[in-house]
Amino acid sequence: MPVRRKVVLWSVLTPVALIALLVVVILTFDWNRIKPWLNDRVSEAIGRPFAINGDLTVTWRRGEGEKGWRTLVPWPRLSARDITVGNPDWAAQPNLATVRELIFVLRPLPLLANEIAVPTIVIDSPAVWLERLADSRNNWTFDTGPKEGTSKWRLDVGEVVLARGNLALTDQLKKISLQAELDTIGNAPLYDKARDGALVEPQASAVPPGPPGSAAQAASAPRAGGPASAAPANGGDGRYGVRWKATGRYNEATINASGKAGTVLSLRNTDVPFPIQADVRVGTTRAQIEGTVTNPAHLAALDVHLTLAGDSMARLYALTGVVLPSTPPYQTRGRLMATLRKEGSIYEYQKFTGRVGGSDLSGTLTFTKRDPRPLLAGNLVSNQLRFVDLAPLIGADAKPGRPAKDSAVAQPADKALPVAPFRTERWDEIDADVHFTGKRIIRDAELPISDLVTHVKLQDGVLLLDPLNFGVAGGNLVSTVRLDGKREPMGAMVDLKARRMKLKQLFPTFDLMRASIGELNGSAKLSATGNSVAALLGSSNGEARLLVENGTVSKFLLEAIGLNVGSLVVSKLFGDKPVQINCAVSDFAMTDGVARARTFVLDTQDAVIETTGGIDLRSERLALTIHPDSKGLRIFSLRSPLYVGGTMKDPRVSPDIGVLALRAGGALSLALLAPVATAVLPLLDLSPGGDDTQCARLLAELRKRPTAPPPGKTYKDPKAAAAPDAAAGADATARRPGKPAAEARAAGKAPAASRQQPPRPAAQRPPQRPANERTPQRPSNDRSFYQGG
Questions:
Q1: What integer pLDDT is reported at residue 261 of this predicted model?
Q2: How far is CA 145 from each of CA 90, 141, 148, rounded to the nearest angstrom?
Q3: Which GO terms describe its biological process (predicted)?
């Protein structure tokens, strides 16, 4: 054989032989020999003990998806059994994770371009123990040390196929203890296919395509109040390949959860959604979801149908970090879409519907994570809002001896004002910008409230309700409320206006007001400090004014107040008649929780009714005196002051027994000395009549805008400060015990309890009382807080 031919032959046979030898070596090589080297390299890279304790094997199969000569290059399928990843020394468990078997297929040709291409990874029976201490140390963060330069190698993983597994989580920082189990559904054909090294395709979306609210979307949505729809046990449409369940505790609440997920997790094609389904119960809160996660390795997007239910929305804070108010039991259902990113994730709960207590609720809410605080924004609407469902917002749902919802403070049995504290410590954790409309309010017959509109803004711990408007008695109650949760105690400012409220609708259950005509207007401006409704009102300062012009009121009501017995009988026999209202005016000064009546007058064509005294909102005590004065002849008049005492929880109304006794005694004396006709003289009300009182000055005074000092400052009544000191001395002299009120008026001064009132026009002043009438004496325990101005 020529030398040249031998050289050519050897040149061809040698590479073939080397390749054949290499193939034989690879096929017969015991890959377990490289385990020590591989274990050391991985342990060094992650800073933790790593070991492949079982067999390390390599098999070969034909590549899939290749074309041309590339189909001749086989793909290695690597299998590693019994893998352990160790824990730090401080951890309670020796291992972070164990895996029964890890299988992956490697594409060899991309290795020439410094790329490690792994089409599929199969994880069989993983067990993971996650732990975090109170000092924030955790065992899932690896200490990889400083990186020297940038590696030329790139890792490209296609799909991850999940199988059976267990997860345990102990988080001392979040106070979570959780155990979860993962298992395949049915025969899991995708899992078996992946184990053999074949490529598998990710599942289709669990939510059919189409716009929100479309027929396709509605068909796949879970029913409100029921469990989310599930795929058949054997995988059905192929969306779900594994099922999971979890139990544990979060704070003091019990966790019970279950759900399903897809078998194939696509890491390369980030546009392929990963189907999920879950039913989670934490304490009294339940969340049901069904939908998809896009790019689950980085949680890029979320699109699920979400049903929420629980005892109070305030308890969602522990689960979501979103500050919500206390509410009655609720249930909502809607579509939750989220865009998840490092610079700020956005969650949108779209077009949800549901109920809160007995009220319906719908709308859209958007939660944006941002610095320095997240923002909750949206629009909410209730077509039928039960007024009682608003009570937990201010702690008014508390019963005597029992705390309000989400509060540990019990409501005292003798208190009418809610004492449950506001949870202001969370107000600086979130900002809010929410519009709410209650189109129709369902309430008790005593409450003439029809609708509600408000704009809630929470910014850096300061809550602003601007406006907070109620439809009341055919008119409007327009207000602005500002609560400063940054200060301790909380500061509050309230600016309130009552406009065009109908008298006959203000007291719908009071028969004597049904014939009334006229409109009530008013305004108030108050400041206060305190952490509850009771504390705020008990420290309030400012002014409050109400007025009624050109209305009518029941004549029977006026006679009842004046105790004109004869007129009462006539009204009952021959019917009631309306009486023209010249004006009704009230002007209260609020000083450190004490409301004092500067002016409180009802002037009609038949009578003038004046009220003096005040209300102590700190102790909730009442001390009001009603003085009825008729303008004409009244038969059998038992006119005497009426005292309103007691507390707001237990008010008590009583006449001046002394005045009634004097009148009855006078009648008895005259009956002994004169004919029977003269016996009725003490019972005659000889009050002079006259023209209608002109209320222009009082109305002009009341139309002035009320004022209030900043929260924490005491209101200084300018009307009280304008009174000279000498007047106060004369007041005291004129009001000495036992001195008739007529003498006091003759001295030129009004009774002490009403000395802050501006002087009334002569036509408006009530007539002098008979000389034998005593000045009404207030009970000593009701006098202290409003005397002395």
A1: 85
A2: 19, 12, 9
A3: regulation of protein targeting to membrane
